[in-house]
Amino acid sequence: MNDINPLLMQHEPRDYAAVRPEHVTPALDRLLADADAALERAVGPDVPADYDAISAVLDVAVERLFVAWGTVNHLQAVADTPTLRAAHAENQPRVIAFSTRLASDPRLYAKYKAVAAAGADLPPARRKALADALRDFVLGGAELQGAERERYAAIQERSGALSQQFGDQLLDATDAFTLTVPEEQLAGVPEDVRQAARDAAAAAGEAGCRLTLKAPCYFPVMQYARHRPLREALYRAYVTRASEFGPPEHDNAAVMRELVELRQEEAALLGHTSFAQLALVPKMARSPEEVLSFVHDLARRARPFAERELAELKDFAARELGLPDLHAWDRAYAAEQLMQSRYAFSSQEVRQYFTAPRVLAGLFKLIETLFGVSIQEAQAPVWHDSVRYFRVARGGADIASFYLDLPARSGKQSGAWMDDARSRWRRPEGSLQHPAAHLVCNFAPPVGGQPALLTHDDVITLFHEFGHGLHHMLTQVDELALAGISGVEADAVELPSQFMENFCWEWEVVQGLTAHVETGQPLPRALFDRMVAARHFHGGLQLLRQCEYSVFDMRLHAEQAAAARIQALAGEVSQALQPEPPPAFQRYPNSFSHLFDGGYAAGYYGYAWAEVLSADAYAAFEEAGVFDPATGQRFREQVLEVGGSRPALESFRAFRGRDPQLDALLRHRGLT
Q1: Choice among 63, 266, 309, 465 that is catalytic
Q2: Nearest in space to 172 (alpha carbons), one of 70, 272, 248
Q3: Regions in the chain scoring below 70 on pLDDT
Q4: Residue 465 designated active-site
Q5: 366 partner at 20 to 30 Å CA-CA among 14, 108, 137, 509?
Q6: Are 367 and 469 in contact (CB under 8 A)?
Q7: Domains of the chain
Q8: Torsion 93-96-98-104 (CA) sign
Q9: Which residues contact 192 (CB under 8 A, 6 or more apart)?
Q10: What integer pLDDT is reported at residue 2 of this predicted model?
Q11: Are 184 and 190 in contact (CB under 8 A)?
């Protein structure tokens, strides 16, 4: 099988369609053996303490392993099956064991220290790569000895398994829920959502409409359904996913507790007082106290706006909707009704103009204009027939590629993300490897022969993920460890993604994103103006929720006893920050993938931290013009192209000519 195993093929684009669960273990057998052999050779006497010599032996084998394993991880996230999950679970401990061994090998650590000691004349990017590598050896346990070293390795293996278990149980809990109701209970819900629910019921051999907790179904029902008991039923199911209120095999409570305990133990082994302190070592923020001070300051600024917004919503619900006791499951519905009343603006009305083909065409044109590239669809084997493949070129030559997977479906994890299929690298053998990205969302699929319709929030999400993709794909850094998003401080990595969101509010851009699904006409200026007027609607409540999650995350990983009281801590933070806490039965930590299965542990604050940078960076386009190619070129060259080759603050200063200021964030949030 090895001769035809697609996970062992190195050509691009890779053959996703050919990968089967039975390929995983044989491929990992070979790739792990090759990587182990490469590590032993790299630390031996035949390989000198020279950056290129080590890379030629070790990096080639390790990169091949991690690209193949990344393919398996990706497929398990977007096309999960029981057999693929089993193959992933079988091999994950082996990959983690090798990764831990690689990151903590004292012989390799010593050889890298020798390279650094003799590397005064190395280029700046390579010096930073070496400095990052030495820091990561320490964080990876390279200075631990004996039993501590063994315990550290065991923690890594168990933590990886628990993170995977968290994601699997959340996906299973989400997929397991269905609710079939008579169509009259969907009064007020958009027709395409009702049609999809009718189709789902028919496919299951049922009468009526079948609802799920997938985003394209759940959120429109909560926003538009006039039937209050239905909203309550869906809300309860959604906010209690993977908790004690559902099947025991889906409950993430024990998984979360053990993960947090293991993280604190890991931090102690490495000489830190908490996992929060450990996690901040490679970030811009220097301490948990600095983070909490920053977030509490934002919350203080947002609180008066949030209190006023909630009071107005309650008053409107009582006067106009007959809801004197506004519950959590009423908020989205009441907010939509208030927004329509106040601004003559309906999210559903706007949605008719954002067809997926038109949005993509407008997005690509914007990217091409600002950053001097071209985007063309191409052919490649994909994991689902709704996935599309594109090539990115500059000056007629390909520089990158990406896969676009937009619709929600069973077996696909919720949310939206970008991850790297392959990174840019000037390989030791001399060839230049071009980056490739996965861009994944969970939007409503096409219904009734019409193109898929996106909400404006969907459009913002798409632009956000493309910001990450541009950071990954437009890099000009040749060092694998620093290309694209690699090597960028985790609390700055959201700069390009949040930066791109701002274009969704510009008339010059939106004209190119819209064409009515029936008439083909662009969004009318009057409707756009009403949409912009509503931009900051409930902006205080939204920022306060972000602050709540950030404080919960930081305290969870900074306080020694937090693992035993996760839900109580979540309740305390809500009580302290929110003008009105959520229902006692809410279990949002149990589905908080960012913290337990997404790499954002003690890092969720990074969204707000990076927004200071991104909002101020976008202000340069507000000053020069949103389509100004000179400003776009400067952003590309000083932020996107340099990747992690220098500190993010230096890249910001090179673009803006000064330090970042908070004013733009507050203005963009409507908090001025």
Answers
A1: 465
A2: 248
A3: 1-3
A4: yes
A5: 14
A6: no
A7: 2-143 (1.20.1050.40), 177-240 (no CATH), 250-345+538-604 (1.10.1370.10), 346-527+605-672 (1.10.1370.40)
A8: negative
A9: 444, 447, 448, 450, 453
A10: 44
A11: no
